[in-house]
Fold:
Amino acid sequence: MGTVLSISPATKKAMDADDGAKGDKSLKRPSMFVSLSWKKLVASSAKKKVTPNPNPPCAPQVAQRNSENLRKTLQGDERKPRAPIPVPVPTVPTQSNKQAAVPKRGGSPSAVSPRRIVIQASTGELLRCLGDFVCRRCYKLKELNSGEVILWFRNIDRTLLLQGWQDQGFITPANVVFVYLLCEATLDESLASPAELQGAFQTCLYLAYSYMGNEISYPLKPFMMEANKDAFWDTSLGIIERLSGKMLQLNADPHFFTEVFQELKSQRDCSEPNLDR
Structure:
């Protein structure tokens, strides 16, 4: 005879509940494993990010490396050839025919600077030119010669050296040009005697020594003559008042100096024998 199994609704529900619980547990287990695996992955990556360098460079080593790198860079710069510093070279602008003329001394200068002219002359030659100029300017003094004028100049310079008023001679080409500038504006044909001419000439010498000389001061005695004693200071002040600007310009303007130099050199009397020393 067969056996009959009867299941009540409550029992069936309990069984269904047990089967559902087992199914839920079986379904929940993988999610737990996935969650644990994700946590481990995040934790391991975080450890890799925050793991400190086991051998960090210390501060002295960093400073030493920076110093070595700087030294190598400087040595490399020193080995490289340095480019030469460009130096500006003065150029002479081209001039038209109208602008090529050089202005005369005392006139208005040209808008364009004249070309540089190289001129030269010995001290003896310039002294001879100065003596010839004085004789030509004071033509009324028939017995005067250029050698006598040069002797006045040399005697004063020698006296100052012997008496210890100066350590070196004053007579140089530049100083002779300066003396000529003063004589050209001071001496004229109105001088009636050689003594009067000598007094005026030595007054020009005194101002030239005072302005261009190497010493602080010079004595009056070698320059002042009895025949010119009363007019000495009046002549001196008159020269200063009229020629101060040109005296400064002669030292500051090379073109003006060249012009006066050429003018003095042109005073040479070619008919006289060559007495340059």
Notes: The longest helix spans residues 9-50. The chain is about 60% helix and 0% strand. Helices lie at 9-50, 59-79, 123-137, 146-162, 173-186, 194-212, 232-252, 254-265. The domain at 123-265 is CATH 1.10.472.10 (Cyclin A; domain 1).
